[in-house]
Amino acid sequence: MTRSFVVDALPESAPRYRGTHALVAVDVFRATSVIVTALAGGHSVYPVGTLAEALNTAGRLRQPLLAGEQAGLKPECFDFDNSPVALEAAPGHHPMVLLTSAGTLLLANCRGGSAIYVACLRNFSATARAVVSHRRVALIGAGTRGQPRDEDQLVCAWIGDQLLDAGFRPEDERTLREVERWRSADPALLRCGPSADFLRASGQEHDLDWVLAHVDDLDAVAIYNGQQVNLLQVAPTAGLMADAT
What we know:
The protein is 31% helix and 16% strand. The protein is α/β, with parallel strands linked by helices. The chain has one domain (4-231): putative 2-phosphosulfolactate phosphatase (Alpha-Beta Complex). The protein is globular and about 50 Å long.
């Protein structure tokens, strides 16, 4: 049986793969990093696509936390920004509703897919091992303003490289080029680029440092059912670039 994968880069791309591929959503800075970290910390996580949906979802939950941003700013009624560092101060085991400009929009666009995974630097190897059970896989970065982001393409390419090792083939030349470009890249390169510049300019460099210090440190498979993200397993992964800074 031929197995294949594709790398894409924008939330708007998700609908073209929903009926044919397992979907992997990636938003390293910062939505999928927040989701995986929150799940590992004992929170249930509900990604949403709009502010109205965030408020409606929160209204159905017991003592929810509202987290996220719109156009880079935390909505006034929210408890936390889209920040994995901020989660360290979040009371444990509360459900979290997450709204972001790109990452949760990507997940909203994935709704209706038969299998939807959530990946970041923390769990890319675990995700790669999980998706080999599918015949076709779409690795989709969240991008921003219609452009791909290096950090998302890196994680998609690293998962894709492991799929190549498992016998998958790239579905197009662009996918192969992405894997070849990023397969040996140092995560420290992500300190240079628009996303890193934004975090520094907005006083959120702590999130940049935190994300780059947590690379492949969770054996955690996160699956989205269209409403909630669930964690299938969590175990520390020793010795795998635990501090990439």
